[in-house]
Every structure is written in C-alpha cells, then in structure tokens.
Fold this protein.
Amino acid sequence: MSAPAARRRAEAPAPGVDPLRTALGIGYVVVAAVLATVAAWPVYAAPRMLLVAAVGTVAGLGLAIVTRSLRLHGPLAALFAVGATAVVYALLVVPVAVPGAVGDAPTWLRGIRDGFVGVIVGWKQLLTLSLPLGEYQAVLVPFLLVMLVGPLVAGLLVMPDRRRSPLAVVVGFAMSGFGLAFGSSSLSEPLVVGPVVVPAPRELAVGIGGLAAALVWLLLRSRSIRAVALRRATAGTVQRAGLSGWPAVRRRALAAVLVAVALVVGAVVTPAAAQLTDRSALRDRIEPAVVLRQTATPLASYRAAFGADRIEEPWLVIEGDTGGVERLRLATLDSYDGETFHVAAARDDAAARFSRLPRADTRMPGDVAFGLTVDDGYAGVWVPAPLGLRAAPEFEGPRRAALADGFHRAADGATSIDIAAVPDASAPASGGGHGLLPGDAYSLVSAPDAPAPLGEPDSTPLIDLDEYPALAEWVEMQEQPATAAGFTELVDRLRGRGYLSHAAVDGPDAAEWISRLDAGYTFLPSYSGHSAARIEALFTQLVDQQRLAGPDASDAALVAAVGDDEQFATAIALLARALGYESRVVLGFRLAGAEEVPGAAACTEVCAGGALAVWAEVAAEGGAWTPVDATPQHEVAPSLIKEGEQLPEHPTTPDRTDTATVDPPAAQSESSETAAASPEETDLGLASLLSILRWVGLGGAAVLLLLLPFIVLVAAKGARSRRRRHEPVPEVRIVGAWDELVDLYADHGLPIAATTDRAAAARATGRRAAVELAARVDGAVFAGDPPSDADAEAAWAIVDAERAELRARARARARLAAKLSFASLTRPLRPARASLEEPAR
C-alpha cells in the first residue's frame, strides 16, 4: 500500500460512524461560537458584532465542509484551507467588519488593506482603546478573524468524527478566551434573583456554559462510539438485551450527577476564587499602566517649581488664541490613600483606564485651536492639555510619530499622558525615560471651558470622619448647612483663614516668590506634602485658633493655617468629600481667561514655573466638574494665640524687616508626622499569617489545577473499566474484558496486530493471556448457548492477572507512564483496528 493511501486510510472515519456524531460536533462548534460572542460583547457592545459572529461562523463552517467534501488531507488540506480563508476574508472584511470603507473601488481596496493590516496590529488597538470599542475604524477585524478561523479549525476536527475531534474543545475555549482576555478586568455586575445573588453572571455563563457544552458533546460522542463498537462485536451472533430498568437509570443518573457536580463546583468555586486575588486582563499589562505605576505623583514636585532657579524658567510656550480655555491641566489626581493624591490608574488598574484617543477631524463651532511647545523647564509623561480636548494632538518635530503613538488619555478626559520612549541621554530629564522633552511641540483643538454650577451634595460623607477628627471638628464649629451654599462658605473661610507660604526656610528661594506678592508680606514657614497628617495639622491650627479667639473674634484673628495650593487644594477636596461631594485635585496652569486669584499668576504667551497652580474640582450635576480655587490669602499674617493669652485690642501686622525668621524643627518629613499621629499598632503577626494562608491556598489551587487533567484521566479510565466489568449481560461483559486487555496493551506500549480476528491479533502480541482471552471471547460470542456469569468472571480474572504481571515487570516510571497514558482513550476506531471487534467471516 502506498504512503498516501495509508495516510488516507488512517485519516478516514471509523466504520459505522453515525452521521449524527458529526452533527453533534457541528452543534458544539455553533454553541462555542455563541459563547464566544457573549464573552466578547463587553469589548464592543455594538449590534454589528452579532453580524460579524454569525457571518464568521457560517463562513468558517462552510469552508470546513468544502475542504472535507474535496477529500483533501494533510498539507494539501491545510494549504487549501489557508488560501480559501484568505479569499473569503478579503471578500467579507469590508462589508462585515469595516463598514466605513464601503464606497467606491479605491475606498473598498483601502478597507481590504486595513483589514489585512488589522490582522497584525489590530490586537494592540484593542488593548489601547477604551471600552466599549463599538464599530470604530477596524476594531472588529480581530473578532472577525476569531469567528472565522475558530469555527473553521473546529469544523475540520469534527467533520467527520475521528479520534482527534475532541481537540475541538480546546478551540472552543480559545474562542471564548478572546473576549475574556481582551475585555476589562472588572467583572460583570452581580445578578440578583430574589434572595439569590449571582456574582459575575457573564463570566460564569461563559465558563460554565463552555464546560457544560463540552461535557455533553463528549459524553454523547463517547456513548455513540461505544454503541457502534458493541453492535459490531455482537452483530449476527448475540442477541444483546437492551439496557433497561435499574442499570439504565443508574448509569444515566450517574452521568447527570457528574455533569451537575462539575457545574455546581464551577459556579461555587469560581466566584470564591475570584475574591482571593484581583482578576487581570491583557489590557492591564499595557504600557500606560506600567509607566504610571513607575511615576511619582506630580503634586509632590509642586513646591519645587517656586525655587529660585525654576520660578522664572519657561515650561510651555503658547501659540495662538486660547480665548475660551481658562485652564491647562497637567494631571488630574482623583485617588487619595492618606499619603498622596494620585491618578487612580497609577495604583489601582481597575479604577481607571488610559486609552489612545483617535486623531479625527471633530472640530465643532466655537472650538479653540492653539499650539504648545515644551520649553526647558518641563519634561515628563504628563501632557499639558485642556479638559475639552476633541482629538489627539497633532505632534510636530522629529519625534512626532513616537509621540502620536504614545499619546493616551484617561477615560474621563481629565488627564493626558505620553509614554513615548526618550533617548537615553534625555532619560534623566524626562523623569523615567518616557514622555515629552524640551523642543516637542503639538497643536490641539478643544471645546471651550464651561464650568457647571455646583449641585447639592449627597447626605453620606465619602470619607471616614473618624480618621480626620480635626477636619470634622472645624466643620462642626462653622455651623454651616450641608448644602452647596454651605460648602462655598466653608471654602471661603478656609482660604481666608489660611496664609500663603511656599517654603520651609526663609532664604534666596523664598525671596523670589515673595517679591511677586504685595509689599509688607511677612514670611512664615510651612512644610510641604499633603498627607493626612499634614492636612490634619492644618485644621488643628484653625480649630485651636478659633477656640482660643472666642466667638466674637474678627476674621483677621482667625487666620492660623500656613501652606500653599498643595495643602489647601487637598484640604478642599477632603472637605468636599466630608460633605458628600465627589472631588479631585488638579495640577496645571491658569490661562489669561481665568478668574484672577490673588497670589497666583496666570500665563499668557509663556507658562513659567511660578505660574504652576493646584486647584480642587467638585462633581456637579450631569457628570460635570466645578473648579474650586484653593490659593490662600497672603495679606493678613497669623497672630497665633497661646493658651491663657488674649488678642490685643488693635492687632498690628509687623513689617517684614523686623520679623525674626522662625526656623522649622529638624524633623520635617511627612513620615515622621504620620508615625507620630498613629496611636494604633497593626497586628503584623495576624496579617502575615493571613497573607501566608492566602498564598498557600492560591498555590494549592494552582497545583490542583495543574493536576486536574491527570486526575480526570485516571478517573475516566477507572470509570470505563468499572462499566465494562459490571455490564449486566455476560456476553457484553466478556467482550468488555477483551477491550480492557487491548487498552491495557495500548497504555503499556504493546503492539496490536491489524488483523481480522481476535485470535490472530492475540497471537501477534506474543502474550499467552491474550491468546487465552481471545479464545474465551470467541467462544462466548459464537457459541450456541450464551455464556454464564462464571465465564465472564474468568475472562476478567485473566485481565487482572495480566495487569498485575505487566506492572510487576515494569519499573515505577513505566507504571506511572502507563497509568497516565492517553493511548487507550484515543485508541482509533480505524478499519484495521475496528476489525478486532468484527465477527470472523
């Protein structure tokens, strides 16, 4: 026989294969495609993806049917499938996945080009655009590829059914994995059905549905294969009674219980395991999140901009008219951990997302267009931009391609970053090797700023007031209502009773920013930082001063808190949260159109370090934000009252020349303040134990998952052997003993001759047990009288003895290999092998 003929014979389906099995395989592929569509819905959330899924599945299965109908095998079938898939993909990609390219011939050809390019680069686009993607440009191309290639490969495996068909389960799970991997790491909202709460219903439906579909298909397939084999083994000789009564009920109940247990365990264990650790998706590992985690909060460097060597240093050069845009923001810091205000995505990947902003012509009437050039004073990942940015900036210069590719914007549009790598020589200046450098320039289009009026706060504070006792006490002392008007009054009092200071020591650095203030300014030192301890110290000064000054004290007598925008913007943000407002802190520049704030500069053509500002933003109605300036006054210096003292009847403000410099204490770090302010000690022993137990549990679960395939393999072999051994019909039990012996030889690597009768096959093995068992099986099958239970027990005794002998002769490693071998489970039902179950002619 020639090699091609032998290969075709090996690839041929098993004799007696019921077309129903092929239909069941196709049904499984369709179910897997439906589950893959459900898993991918959050990625796109667009009705067109349903069209992509349907067309891709039908086209993939159609290509598989055509390939099999042409009776192609091996490399030739693979070559035909690849070529046909490319042609079909080219015909479908534009009308199905890139509808924006439907038009004249050149547009259509560009769409086809984008479709093939998307096969390579489209995956990165999925990870860098914010969800849901909708139908934007060619984002549906990867999904079309999955829904076309997945059913094609799975269809080739199940049409017709053969020993490799179960591999279609791997393809089915991989199709569902597309949506889970490229989607969000946030789980779907719990489903409440009466008193029952179903966590992560979408993920559970996909996971458990895929498992159930695979189990049902494999069980039905295995049952069909076994039925065909038994029919061939007893054809024309044994009148095999159908399985009925209690044995039939028991077998079917056992199968149902196994499936039910698997589903229940998956439904219970999966949510519990998900609570042990954060779920992550591929988009969590992209560069923006990594770069942000490596970048310190920009608020920490705010005070450095007022040093003598940086206050006049130009950061940005503005070209064009910025009328309508009042503020240019560097970073919007929306998360506070008690130490620093930072961008949520820098610490908590699930809280915020940075994605690429498409570069599109979306200019609207009234929009503002201007340009920015980075000067010597600035470098870093934070991209100065207005809040209403319409599209990605148009970068200029030699780095324009890298900057355009590295530009990302937060989902709420409040912060822009650029993760473009910088030359090694410039890495120190850039603050980490990414972002803008002096000389980079870009133009942008923005909607004009339109601050929304402040709405009413919620009744529930958004911070734990027990952690901020001084803040809570100061708010209570003001006796203001928890309304928008009350919050506005609290902010005015906070700024009016504060005192501006950008330095801890009076010296050359302080002289630069003091010269910009009104004559007669009195220097007072203030610490930098905006930790909870620093803000509590600020409110403690205000509380003590108001308590000692008495209820009739003037506004000037209540001035006590010393600091700058860093502390007061944080204090206002926390104050807003104490009243029930959502709040955040913004670092940036005020432009010429912004309202004038005493003590804070606005930039027109050039933004220098001394113009850097920090303000708070409070959530308004309709999802908008209201900016709240935070710079304290600098005209009235504090006259701090000590216990037992009284304010003079006519307080005066000393001249600066007569004011003695008060040196701050030696310890100025925030860490020492925080440590001193922490009265409680954490039970580190218990925390460490819980952490160890958690990781031990996760490690044990990981080991169990790794061992699960082998456990299932051993259990499947044991269940198969018990089923054969306990068949109610003695003839079938004896035939099962022969099947068990053949599987035993297959697992131990002993060859079985391809012949037409059992006796010849047994003699070819050279094993006496095989010869003896073959004789007993032929006698039982072809005898006039049916065999007894004793004959069946004798046949199985031969199998048990042969198993014991093979194990005794083999080494431990060989015994383990035989136990974990897949050979018996995947033993093909090819004509040569199937003839062992045929009656002798």
